[in-house]
Amino acid sequence: MAGAAADSAVMSLGSSDTDLADLDGPEDLVRRLLEVARTRTEMDMVWVSRINGDVLSLAIVSGALGDSTILEGSTIPLKDSFCAQVIGGRIASWVPDVRALPETRDLPMAAQLGIRAFVSVPIKAATGSVIGMLTAVSTDPRDVDERTRDFLQMLADSASDLLRDVPIDGDDRRRLRDRIGRVIDHDLLTIAFQPIVDLEHRRVAGYEALSRFPGEPARPDQWFADAAAVGLGVALELHAARTAVSALTNLPPDTYLSINLSPAALVSVEPSELMPTDPTRLVLELTEHARVGDYEQLRHALDRFRGAGVRIAVDDAGAGFASFRHILELEPDIVKVDLAISQGIHRDPARQALVGGISELARHSGATLVAEGVEEPADLDRLATLGVSIFQGYLFGRPAPLPSNGLPEAAIPAHTIGTPAHRSRRVMESRFETAVLSAAVPTAIVDLDGTMRSVSDRFAAFLGRTTAEMTGRRFQELTHPEDLDADVEHLRACLEGRADGYRMTKRYLRPDGSPVSADLIATVVRDRDGAPLYFVSHVLPL
Ligand code: C2E
Ligand code: CA
Ligand code: CA
């Protein structure tokens, strides 16, 4: 198959207008992808399989193979599949006629299903490990070659994010639904608030609500992706949104609350469900990286909120081309520059040009520009010269739970404000940090959400890592999954004021995944009013 044909297949996949009502999970998009793969390769059947231990399960199937029926969710031992042979490099990724080759002639799977030709390519996780295969098969010999393989590989790569979110099999699906259902039913998610700072007026303009979940996975966006994959995406998003909105009364009165909603959640929610007493204090951040087929429907849904005074933000601007179109079509009040664009912008003229463009577009439509993910003063300065005056990022404050007595103030970096009071506080803090980190036992200063703010050399060495590698990561990622729940439970007890510290034996993970045991002694540091600020963790290797 010619490269141009492959390109146009991807184009037609992208531009086939996505009805918002169908946007309830990656599964539908993968189905559409398989149909494209099947028509373009002219094969009888295409499937996505997932590797689950030593079993291969057919997660999503498109097309049919003569009389034999292959059901979605059916499994075969990995060793009997030709996928395993392909991964192991024992047979080629494409075979025009299985009977022509001694290595493939007797493959049990081919014989059972009457397969004569196949092409099979790996689907890889971000880490590079193979999590499944995209496979096209037919009951007659076919003229498949490396170009067919390249085409399928391109589809597998370009959609690997989606494919990763497709649950492995029925059991997995049930487990995911149970886990997510429990969070919703028992109200187990909490909200962290991150300040959004208006530097021109030297004040906190608002807070973004970010969901935090108990246990694995550590990343909140993975929870939303998992939920979407099993049809609970909208339910989880709305649960998070309601929880966040209910906390609005605890935020300082002159600040707004920014919540995240996908278009699918937005079109299905009744505005009265989310509307706070004062709707002008609510901002909806629209998160959507894919193309939106039906802007009319989306605008209509947004107007129901806008009518009441709610403001609209386009999230992650610059992260994909879709965001430019969102800005033009939706005329948002706020445009948020994606963190991937702001980070390191002072070193990168291309990103500066991109923000210049977004800034221009925002000015034309009267939108305010917010830059997220600002960590470095040099990036802050660069963004300011590009017309950004509102910022969100670790430089100003990490997402943090709402203490009973109000929010900790955002730290306005000393070099931007430079009042003597701020400077002296920073000096004190850094002295304290130096003292803690030079302790004789491995030590870390850990933020309330588990992010390791500072890590001593000894701690890093204990885990076979560098301090740079560990700083900014969450301890959840470095903890053995079986010990995580207990750790998080202790942590919660401290945050809720039921304890001032804890001691537990736990396993950390080294870079190669091997566990290493230690006694963890964590102490919560509180401010004068008793609100938790951070943890100091000492680790005694066992
Ligand atoms: P997002 O909406 O783009 O949120 C910003 C993310 O950037 C947050 O990650 C925040 O913690 C992180 N961040 C903020 N400042 C910095 C910084 O200076 N440096 C770095 N490295 N990161 C920074 P988080 O909390 O892990 O959330 C990830 C994503 O999960 C969010 O991305 C959002 O798409 C999704 N999400 C989180 N909570 C919710 C929710 O309640 N509803 C929905 N629909 N999505 C949510
Ligand atoms: Ca956001
Ligand atoms: Ca973002």
Describe it.
With 542 residues, the chain is an alpha/beta fold. The protein folds into three domains: 3-163, Beta-Lactamase (2-Layer Sandwich), CATH 3.30.450.40; 170-429, TIM Barrel (Alpha-Beta Barrel), CATH 3.20.20; 439-541, Beta-Lactamase, CATH 3.30.450.20. 39% of the residues lie in helices and 23% in strands. It contains 22 helices and 20 strands. An eight-stranded mixed barrel has the order 7-8-9-10-11-12-13-14, surrounded by four helices. A six-stranded antiparallel β-sheet has the order 3-2-1-6-5-4. A hairpin with a 5-residue loop joins strand 18 and strand 19. Helix 1 (3-15) runs antiparallel to helix 2 (26-41), helix 8 (170-185) packs across helix 9 (220-229) and helix 9 packs across helix 10 (233-246). It is globular and about 75 Å long. The model is unreliable at 1-24 and 417-428 (pLDDT under 50). The site of one calcium ion has 4 residues, from loops.
